[in-house]
Design the sequence.
């Protein structure tokens, strides 16, 4: 059974699709394609069915990542099939832990930047939605920096499942 990771931000059109695309690329590069499933969602359904923000797509594609995406809202029932739920900021972390049906499910929720050893105090990935393209580029840099540590943690979990 594959290890399942879901990235979650507010509307699922900026940060979480960016994290999903970057992490999917890292998993592919590591040769772990069939072992890890990656998706994303939003804490709310405001943008459900919409494509990713054009600025997200632009920054992703300019940096060699896939930009295709359709937004959806995270559901509490998904916890049972997910191994790891990655929140993009502390507000998402709190919302997801409140939504978790069990304490074990709440423990599945982690902040993305907690996997970045250079992120000491502020572990939030700022919401770029109301700013310019530079905010999306900053978001991508934070996502990329955390993806290596996340990949190492997920690889360890996957190898533990196989043992």
Sequence:
């Amino acid at each position: 059974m594959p290890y399942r990771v879901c990235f979650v931000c507010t509307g699922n059109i900026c940060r979480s699709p960016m994290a999903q695309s970057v992490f999917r690329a890292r998993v592919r590069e590591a040769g772990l394609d069939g072992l890890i499933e990656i998706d994303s969602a939003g804490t709310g359904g405001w943008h459900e069915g919409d494509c990713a923000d054009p600025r997200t797509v632009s920054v992703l594609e300019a940096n060699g990542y896939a930009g295709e995406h359709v937004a959806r809202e995270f559901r509490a029932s998904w916890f049972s099939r997910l191994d790891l739920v990655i929140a993009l900021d502390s507000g998402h972390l709190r919302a997801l832990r409140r939504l978790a049906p069990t304490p074990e499910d709440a423990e599945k929720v982690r902040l993305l930047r907690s996997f970045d050893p250079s992120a000491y105090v502020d572990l939030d990935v700022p919401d770029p939605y109301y700013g310019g393209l530079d905010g999306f580029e900053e978001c991508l840099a934070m996502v990329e920096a955390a993806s290596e540590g996340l990949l190492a943690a997920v690889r360890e979990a996957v190898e533990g499942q196989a043992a």
